[in-house]
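hiii, so i know i said id send this last week but things got crazy w the move. better late than never?? heres the sequnce for the chain we talked about at the cafe, plus the structure i predicted for it. fair warning i was half asleep when i ran it
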Amino acid sequence: MQLKEDQEIRQLANLELLARQVVEGFITGLHQSPFHGFSVEFAEHRLYNSGESVKNIDWKLLARTDKLFVKQFEEETNLRCYLLLDTSSSMNFPDKGINKLQFSIYAIASLMYLFKKQRDAFGLCTFSDKLDRISPVKSTNTHLFYLYAELEKAYNQPNVNTATNITKVLHQVAGQIHQRSMVIIFSDMLENSLNPEKMQALFAAIQHLKYSKHEVIIFNVCDKQKEHDFNFDNRPHHFIDIESGEQVKVHPGKIRESYQSALQKYHHELELKCAQYHIDIIDAYIEDGYQHVLKEYLIKRNKMV
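okay and structure toks below
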């Protein structure tokens, strides 16, 4: 029993270490960037607003940055974030290298570390064809490591032959979140791709969230090489639906054009609907890494404050 507990502690430490490295590297990159149209303010400091009291100005930071920053206290931050993780079987693709589920888990762990650094409250929801669990939102170290443990479970025990029902889940989540929050969804959004009625039902569920004044971000997780570009060897392949088990044998070169056309049409419709409901939808390609996710989140956060 002690050995198992020690292994779990080491796993949590590795997840926390990776998240810290991603976030700190991202922050360093922002500070070194020659672009000035985007800034990141953490809970300890915010930009000084002309006319307010100067008693909390950080003069040492002024000397280093040539900018006026005010020391910010915990009660000044009140952003609440819910992170929704799709754990359906389609997220286990690809079977080599990092898959969509693993990428999403590491991205969420990094966002949680960033939330904790900003003293924002955060919670986790995992779902597949049903709402598996939803946590309260808190900003403590204990809560952070509790959610890391939940992410470890999802990482180590991926679902097999499990479909997605994101529509039902979003209605349930909307009914359980009673304060205005930011809702961040990590999913491959494949459930509704070929069914217009299901797509309409999905956006009715998202509209349920928007009706309650929640801000919604969808990170559409994808393996660009395989799923977007359909980059497979020029020979017959045996494809198996990870969720249903349905099988088909096809030659990628013969269907690539029609596949990409259908996928582009679906993505275009998805983007139009999101724009209609003022929802941010961002392509999160595994190949692009985690910093793209952090940047898009911070852009959204800066618009809200």
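btw The first strand starts at residue 45 and ends at 47. thought thatd interest u
miss u guys!!
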